[in-house]
Amino acid sequence: MAAALISACGQIARKQVKSSFSTLAHAAPSRLNAVKTTSNTTTTVSTAVGAPAGGAGTTAAPPVHLQHELKRALAGAGRQVGLVVEDLSDNRTVYSVGANVARPPASVEKLYTSVAVLNLLGPSTRLQTTVLGTGTLGRGGVWHGNLYLRGGGDPTFGDGSWNKAYEDGHGPTAMQLAHQLHHDGIDRVTGHIFADDSLFDSDLGGPATDNLPDTPDYGGEMSALVYDHGMSASRMPPAVFATHELALTMRGEGMRVGAASRTRDTPSGAAQLAAVQSPPISELVRLMDVPSDDLIADMLAKQLGARLLGQGTLLEGATEIQQAIESAYDVHPTIFDGSGLDRDDRTTPAEVATLLRKVWNTPTGNLLYAALPVVGKQGTVQSIGVNTAADGNCVAKTGTLNGVTNLAGYCRARGGKSMVFALMIDGPDNYQAFPMLSRVVAAIARY
After folding, report:
1. 346, 367, 365: which is closest to 356 by C-alpha?
2. How far is residue 69's CA from residue 440's CA, in Å, rounded to a whole number?
3. CA–CA separation, 222 vs 298, rounded Å?
4. Taking the chain, what is the end-to-end CA distance rounded to the nearest angstrom?
5. How far apart are CA 175 and CA 159, in angstroms?
6. What region, left, alpha or beta, does residue 102 occupy, with left being phi > 0 and alpha being psi -120 to 50 degrees?
7. 14-121+284-290+336-445 architecture in CATH?
8. Measured between alpha carbons, how far is 23 from 374 in angstroms, rounded to an integer?
9. pLDDT in tens, 389-447
């Protein structure tokens, strides 16, 4: 079957980041030890990192060459630019411009989603996809009744070959479920397999398409039950498609069964017959952040809504993300989804930098760091900072919508210092702003 187009960071012109999803999803190696040995008018300040940009606690000014290089790197960005650079080693802000102006974060918002999901669900939590049955097992391996494939919001459930190519080899498969059912002694089902996607709402897309399917951004359609990254077919929404794929897999194993053409909630009292689990949340966060996967981000947001508020919607999930960030880190973004596709999302460079600073060297921060792609090497940053001091020495999250070009993350500077930065550029076309990202991280890494 044809693979769905999976795009990164939202509505960026596709020609700017050309990479196969399999390349983008390669594991970010452990590199923690290596890294750890208010206005729109340009202002350069040096403040205690714990204080607001431009606030109390000033220390010696940073080297003039860094100020000059960052100004030069942003030449042509216009007035709608925000940048905060902090020296974590010396606990101070070394550069700030437009730090407190709220802007669309685009996929930089996935930093908030990552931290909230890790904190609220826990890094070892796994999402379960189950097969339940109503009926009885009779002679000859005949299941007299129906089966129900109930989705638990796992974005990695699918075909083994798909997962190998597009999920870095992670994710449970329909074959695993088929083998468990066959082991249970089921050779034939008199009823049908129904799809149960009731954990989430029925919205197939997000804000960019008024909740209608948004394959260009998501690379599939959202559901509590997806197969091969939300693949669907004519008259088959993703959940129904998943049950048909399971039925095909079972028939390939010699079992006789048919899939229903509609969804149905699993009846109370149904018996669990088989189950598979997703990779842990820590791995799902990496699979989200390295290629900037919007489908995974918004499915994780809905997971939060379902588990914590009893409603698997983007609105409820976004509420949980926002409250988690506010309560734990005293950062106050405006969040309407998990992916950053909603252009009404707002945050400031200072808020992003504050989050990254506060999680630094914490258990959650270590997992976040390990989930981010390496500049010049991986994911959506593999073409940023190539052959500069930043190449291999920074990890970062991109964020792009049309006219929005953002980058935030960490750098190991040439002098051995650990740096955090948050850059947000509004206005210029992505192709004009994208080279600025390389110049900025290169200057920071040379610090």
Report:
1. 365
2. 8
3. 8
4. 49
5. 8
6. beta
7. 3-Layer(aba) Sandwich (3.40)
8. 13
9. 999 999 999 999 999 999 999 999 988 899 999 999 998 899 999 999 999 999 999 98
**Mean pLDDT over residues 236-258, rounded?**
97
For tokens 């003039």, the residue is: 64
Q: CA-to-CA distance for 16 and 339, rounded, in angstroms?
A: 19
Residue 96's DSSP bridge partners are 43, 84
Nearest Cα to Cα of residue 149 among 134, 135, 136, 130: 130
Classified as helix, coil or strand, 443 is helix
- This prediction has a pTM of 0.87
The dihedral region occupied by 301, where left means phi > 0, alpha psi between -120 and 50, and beta the remainder, is alpha
| Chain mean position to CA 1 | 25
Tokens encoding 298: 């918004």
Residue (of 233, 227, 222) closest to 159 by Cα position = 227
- Both tokens of 332, joined, read 């106050």
CATH 3.50.80.20 at 128-279, yes or no: yes
Q: Which two tokens stand for residue 218?
A: 């998501």
Distances, alpha carbon 160 to alpha carbons 175, 195, 296, 307, in Å: 8, 20, 18, 28
- What is the residue extent of each domain of the chain? 14-121+284-290+336-445, 128-279
For residues 168 and 266, what is the distance between their CA atoms, to the nearest angstrom?
31
Tokens of residue 384, six digits: 């940023």
Alpha helices in 253-313 (DSSP H): 281-289, 294-304
Cα(197)–Cα(225) distance, rounded to whole angstroms? 5
CA–CA gap between residue 76 and residue 71 (Å, rounded): 10
Find the helix or strand (DSSP H, E) in which 112 lies: helix 110-121
How many Å apart are CA 195 and CA 151, to the nearest integer?
A: 8
The string of pLDDT tens digits covering residues 176-211 is 999 999 999 999 999 999 999 999 999 999 988 999
Rounded Cα distance, 242 and 1, in Å: 13
Contact 255, 182 (CB under 8 A): yes
Euclidean distance between CA atoms 279 and 328, whole angstroms: 26
What is d(CA 149, CA 264) in angstroms, rounded to the nearest whole number?
10
Does the pLDDT value for residue 45 go beyond 60? no
Contact 16, 67 (CB under 8 A): no
**How is residue 179 annotated by DSSP?**
H
